[in-house]
Write a structure and sequence with these properties.
binds flavin-adenine dinucleotide, 14 helices, elongated, alpha+beta, 2 domains
Length: about 400
C-alpha cells in the first residue's frame, strides 16, 4: 500500500508523539489526529501538578521495568528500542531540556507542562499533521478488502473519515463499556480498575497527624503478599505518599475486589522487626535518664512518637530505662505494624491512571499492531500497561508511540 493515510484517535501524549514521529520518519505520509474534546493534551497539561513529569532518570531497562505493575514483560523490547535516554534526547534536541529531581523524576527545566504541550503542538503543526478537535469517533468500521482504505471512522457529528491505518491513542477509561468501540472490533479488553490512589482511613486519631511525613516507611496490606517502601504522608483523610501510591498500583486489582476495605499495616521505618528492636534499644540506652516522651527515635517526628506511645498505652512520665518488656514490645508492635482499617480510596491529584485496557497478548510488541486486526494499532494508556508514580506512565506513552511510528513509517 503506497498512499498511507494514518488516522490517530486521541490528541493526548501518545497520539501527538505517534503523529510527530511518523512525520519525522516519513514526511510524505498523511497523518490526521481526531480529538473528541475541544482541547488537546489536556491530561498532559495538568500532569505532575502542572509541571509534567516527562520521564524518570532510570536508564537501565531492567531497572525501569520494575516500576510497571502491568506491562513489564511486554515493555522489555519496546524500552530497548525507545528508552528513557531516547526521550531525554528527543526533548533536548527540540529545545526542551529536562532536569532531574533528587528522587529521579524528570521535568522540563521551565517547571511548566505548557513547555511540553507547546512543543508537541508546534512540532505537529510544522510537520503538517492535521488536527480535528470536537470530533469524537464513535465507531470504527472495516471496509471491504481490495479498496484503497481499510477503515471508516464515524463521528458523533455524523461525519466520517477514511484511513489506511488507525491508531488507538484514546487513553484509559474508568468503565468497561467505554471500550466498546474497540471491543466491537474483536479486541479483548482487560476490565479497567483505578491505580495510583490514596487510602481513606476513618480512624480520626490518625487525622490529628495530618501534614506529617516520614521518609522511609513500609506499607503492607493484610492478606496481600508484598510490602512497599518509601515516603509516607498523613493527610486529613488517611494515608498518602509514594509508599501508599506504590501499594495502590501493585495491589490495584486486589484492592478493587476487596472494595478498598482492608487493613494497612504501617511500619514507620523500613526496618525488619529485629533491626527495629536493636534500633529502639540503642535509642533508649542512649537516653536512659530521659522521660520516654522525650526520646523520639531518629526519623520519627515528635508528633508521631507521641502518637505511637498513645497507641501503645505507654505511661509517658516513665524514664526510658524503666520501660517494662511488655511496654517495649507494645512500642515495637506500633512502630513495625500499626494497623489502620481502610475504607475507600481518594484519587491522588498529581497523577492517576487506569489499570486494564487492551490485553497485551493481542498486540505485536514489535509494531504495536493488533495481531488479529491488521491496520489497527494501539499506544499509551489504552493498553493494559501502567506504571507507578514518577514519570513512568509518560515514558510508556512515548515508547509505545515511538514504536508505532516506526512500524507505520515503513
Ligand atoms: C492528574 C494527572 C496527572 C498525571 N501526571 C503524570 C505525570 O506527571 N507523569 C506521568 O508519567 N504520568 C502522569 N499521568 C498519567 C499520564 O497523564 C497518562 O498516562 C498519559 O497522559 C497517557 O497518555 P495517552 O495519550 O495514552 O492518553 P490521554 O492523555 O488520556 O489522551 C487520550 C485522548 O484521547 C481522546 N479521546 C478518547 N476517546 C476518543 C474518541 N472516541 N474520539 C476522539 N478522541 C478521543 C481524549 O479526549 C484524550 O484527549 C497523570 C495523569 C493524571 C490524570
Amino acid at each position: 500500500m503506497t498512499n498511507k493515510r494514518i488516522v490517530i484517535i486521541g490528541a493526548g501524549a501518545s497520539g501527538y508523539f505517534t503523529a510527530i514521529r511518523v512525520k519525522e520518519l516519513n514526511p510524505k505520509l498523511e497523518v490526521i489526529i481526531l480529538e473528541k474534546t475541544g482541547k488537546t493534551l489536556s491530561k498532559l497539561r495538568i500532569s505532575g501538578g502542572g509541571r509534567c513529569n516527562v520521564t524518570h532518570d532510570c536508564k537501565g531497562v531492567s531497572a525501569l521495568l520494575q516500576h510497571y505493575p502491568r506491562g513489564k514483560n511486554f515493555l522489555k523490547k519496546i524500552f530497548h528500542d525507545w528508552s528513557v535516554q531516547h526521550t531525554i534526547d528527543w526533548f533536548e534536541s527540540n529545545g526542551v531540556p529536562l532536569k532531574t529531581e533528587s528522587d529521579g523524576r524528570m521535568f522540563p527545566v521551565t517547571d511548566s507542562s505548557e513547555t511540553i504541550a507547546q512543543l508537541l503542538e508546534w512540532k505537529a503543526k510544522k510537520l503538517g499533521v492535521q488536527l480535528y478537535t470536537n470530533t469524537s469517533v464513535v465507531t470504527i468500521v472495516a471496509l471491504p478488502a481490495g479498496g484503497t482504505y481499510r477503515w471508516q471512522l464515524n463521528f458523533n457529528t455524523g461525519g466520517s473519515e477514511v484511513a489506511t491505518d488507525v491508531v488507538l491513542a484514546v487513553g484509559g477509561f474508568s468503565k468497561e463499556s467505554q471500550y466498546n468501540m474497540i471491543a466491537n472490533l474483536g479486541v479483548k479488553i482487560v476490565p479497567p480498575v483505578p491505580s495510583l490512589f490514596t487510602f481513606n482511613i476513618p480512624d480520626s486519631t490518625l487525622h490529628t497527624l495530618h501534614g506529617l511525613s516520614v521518609q522511609d516507611a513500609r506499607v503492607k496490606l493484610t492478606g496481600y503478599p508484598e510490602a512497599y517502601q518509601g515516603p509516607l504522608l498523613v493527610t486529613h483523610w488517611g494515608l498518602s505518599g509514594p509508599a501508599v501510591l506504590k501499594t495502590s498500583a501493585w495491589a490495584a486489582r486486589w484492592l478493587y475486589e476487596k472494595k478498598y476495605c482492608t487493613t494497612a499495616l504501617v511500619s514507620w521505618k523500613n526496618l525488619g522487626e529485629e533491626e527495629m528492636r536493636d534500633f529502639l534499644r540503642d535509642t533508649l540506652t542512649e537516653n536512659a535518664k530521659k522521660r520516654i516522651d522525650n526520646v523520639s527515635p531518629e526519623g520519627i517526628p515528635r508528633r508521631l512518637w507521641d502518637y505511637i506511645l498513645l497507641r501503645a498505652g505507654t505511661p509517658t512520665t516513665k524514664q526510658a530505662a524503666d520501660l517494662s518488656k511488655l511496654e517495649f514490645n507494645k512500642i515495637i508492635e506500633n512502630l513495625c505494624r500499626m494497623p489502620f482499617e481502610t475504607d475507600g480510596r481518594t484519587m491522588f491529584k498529581e497523577e492517576f491512571v487506569t489499570a486494564g485496557g487492551i490485553e497485551l497478548e493481542q498486540v505485536n510488541a514489535k509494531t504495536m499492531e493488533i495481531k488479529s486486526v491488521p491496520g489497527l494499532y494501539a499506544t499509551g494508556e489504552v493498553l493494559d500497561i501502567d506504571g507507578v508514580t514518577g514519570g513512568f506512565n509518560f515514558q510508556a506513552a512515548w515508547s509505545t508511540a515511538a514504536i508505532t511510528a516506526i512500524a507505520l513509517s515503513n
